[in-house]
Amino acid sequence: MxxxxxxxxxxxxxxxxxxxxxxxxxxxxxxxxxGDCAERYIAFKNTQGA
Length: 50
What we know:
2 helices; mainly alpha; rod-shaped
């Protein structure tokens, strides 16, 4: 039973670390992109002539 608890704790820790890393990468990439979603949407609509 101790092996299962250790395995579960290890997997849970790795899952949390993976989620934190992915969140950090996505947040960093979103901050590096110039402008925001609303500005890009407005620019896209203006080029369509709507």
